[in-house]
Amino acid sequence: MKFLNEDEELNPIISAVNLVDVFLVIIAALLISIAQNPLSVFSTEDVTVIKNPGQEDMQMIVKQGKEIKQYKASGEIGAGEGMRAGVAYRMADGSFVYVPEGQETSASSSEVKP
Fold first, then answer.
1. What is the mean pLDDT of residues 3-23?
2. Is 92 within a domain?
């Protein structure tokens, strides 16, 4: 019965058990942080994350379902394909008027004659 009277400080297995407990707590904390990440594959929400907004190395990450797309800023303003569709004017009262291009707008055609 010498084993029962043995001092706990002399038994090396006690310190190993304490290390295992510490690592279990660390692993649990890491799993919780992964589950709460907005870009986690476990979440079904659609998320848009913008990294370094307004800077030259700006990136936009879009997650839709399980698909993740990453867009990088090229540094060019207004780059892309398209064509001019019209002109917008700001009026004195703060409202906007949009005038499409390519359509003839004459005052005589919109007037009602008695």
1. 72
2. no
Residue 107, pLDDT score: 42
Q: Sign (positive/negative) of CA torsion 20, 21, 24, 26?
A: negative
Total-model pTM: 0.39
Nearest to 71 by CA among 88, 105, 48, 41: 48
Is residue 62 scored above 80 in pLDDT?
yes
Which residues are CB-neighbours of 57 under 8 A, at least 6 positions away?
72, 73
User: Residue 57: pLDDT above 80?
Assistant: yes
Question: For the chain, how many structural domains are there in total?
Answer: 1
Q: Residue 109 domain-assigned?
A: no
Decide if 79 is inside a domain: no
